[in-house]
Design goal:
Organism: Eutreptiella gymnastica
Strand content: 15-25%
CATH superfamily: Carbamoyltransferase, C-terminal domain
Radius of gyration: 14 Å
Strand order of the largest sheet: 1-2-6-3-5-4
InterPro entries: Carbam_trans_C, Carbam_trans_C_sf, NodU/CmcH_Carbamoyltrnsfr
CATH topology: DHBP synthase
Number of helices: 4
Largest sheet: 6 strands, mixed
Protein name: Carbamoyltransferase C-terminal domain-containing protein
Length: about 150
């Protein structure tokens, strides 16, 4: 993933709603400058559309200039991204912000472990996360034969 590869995830119970939470998701490193554009192309969306991200909860303050209470377990708010992070992880932010989801180990041990592994390679346990669906209005992929 650090080399710009995409990871498609189909595991466990399917999420309800339009946001990816790690069970039906497309994951990619935000360090690749073209990652957001590539994810949007794959999803059939305009290149400029924002993509959400997930980060290990204890690293929220390293990415965002918002107060700690702004950290959210669901990607419901646009969070300001620190300028130095925007340079290091160019696909993380859109117009200086990101729909950022924070994650603790007990919420999803598998995804948390993946974030920690990515963090060892990149210095930041964060990934872009998009829903695994063919188009914005299609249902999420629920089985490997759906694609």
């Amino acid at each position: 993933m650090h080399a710009g590869k995409l990871l498609g995830v189909l595991r466990g119970r399917q999420e309800v709603g339009v946001r990816a939470l790690g069970h039906r998701a497309l994951l990619m490193s935000p360090s690749a400058p073209d990652a957001r554009a590539r994810l949007n192309c794959l999803k059939g969306r305009p290149e400029w559309m924002p993509i959400g991200a997930v980060v290990a909860r204890e690293h929220f303050a390293n990415l965002s200039s918002e107060p700690e209470w702004f950290a959210a377990s669901y990607p419901s708010f646009i969070t300001a991204v620190r300028p130095e992070v925007q340079v290091r992880l160019p696909s993380l932010s859109f117009a200086g912000g990101c729909r950022l989801q924070t994650l603790e180990h007990q919420q999803d041990p598998w995804l948390y472990a993946l974030l920690q592994a990515v963090g060892k390679l990149t210095g930041t346990p964060a990934l872009l996360i998009a829903s695994f669906r063919r188009s914005p209005f299609a249902p999420p992929i629920s089985h490997i034969y759906d694609g």
